[in-house]
Amino acid sequence: MLEVNGVSLRFGEKEVLRGCDLRLEAGERLALMGPSGCGKTTLARIALGLQRPDSGAVRRDFARVAAVFQEPRLLPWRTAEENVNLVLTDREESLPEARAWLSRLELAEAAALYPAELSGGMQQRLRPGLLLLDEPFKAMDESLRERVLRLTADAIGEAALLLITHSRQEADALGCRVLRYTDGHFEP
Fold first, then answer.
1. 3-class DSSP state for residue 99?
2. Are residues 127 and 73 in contact, defined by beta-carbon separation less than 8 angstroms?
3. pTM of this prediction?
4. For residue range 102-154, what is the model confidence (pLDDT) as tens digits?
5. Strands 55-60 and 2-11
6. Where are the beta strands (DSSP E) in the chain?
7. If we measure between CA atoms, which residue out of 150, 165, 159, 109 comes closest to residue 130?
8. How far is CA 5 from CA 1, 30, 47, 170, in A?
9. Helices (H) and strands (E) in the chain, counts
10. CB-side exposure of 184: number of CA atoms within 13 Å?
11. Distance in angstroms (rounded) separating the CA atoms of residues 59 and 94
12. CA angle (122 as vertex; 116, 126 as ends), nearest 5
């Protein structure tokens, strides 16, 4: 379970989050929606323990958490295949599974390429409990986005999902309950 209680955060004079609450149970799917700069990614960073709130508390009971951020988070010294394998086990015996994932993501030909050799859309398809997706489909054209959304919906399985998006279509395609930003916090 992920539980956020009364989380608030200011950046200088700007109050970004005010008394935010959310609860995400195992297997649930939740989307945070709102205008750019409203605090969706900041709330996700707090939920993952990457940023401290000014007040409030976060409880996260998931044993394993994976996150896909808007900006590339691939290790530049590892190939596409090695980056995927890192999420799996980072052992040689899981390389065939890493190659299979690359193939599903239409990246089989990119297995030996390094992140600097991949396009932005290719990089986003490589990212791998709790799965947090922060606008992971924005660098993809519409046709590819639809295919990757279907693959993602199938791959999530029973994991809990926290999706950050501007697209109601993406939230619906992944079966998410939606919380919208309103005056410093998120509500149904």
1. helix
2. yes
3. 0.72
4. 887 788 988 888 888 888 777 766 554 688 888 888 888 889 889 889 888 88
5. antiparallel
6. 2-11, 14-24, 29-33, 55-60, 65-68, 130-134, 160-164, 177-182, 185-187
7. 159
8. 13, 16, 10, 26
9. 6, 9
10. 12
11. 32
12. 95
Helix axis angle for 80-88 and 95-104, nearest 10°, is: 110
In the predicted model, residues of the chain with pLDDT beneath 70 are 71-73, 87-88, 124-129
Parallel/antiparallel/unpaired status of strands 65-68 and 29-33: unpaired
In the beta sheet, which residues pair with residue 10? Answer: 15
Q: Report CA 32 to chain centroid distance, whole Å.
A: 11
Name the strands in the sheet holding 55-60, side by side, starting at the edge strand that comes first in the sequence: 14-24, 2-11, 55-60
- Six-digit token string for 105: 């993501």
**Reduced to 3 states, what is the DSSP secondary structure of residue 172?**
helix
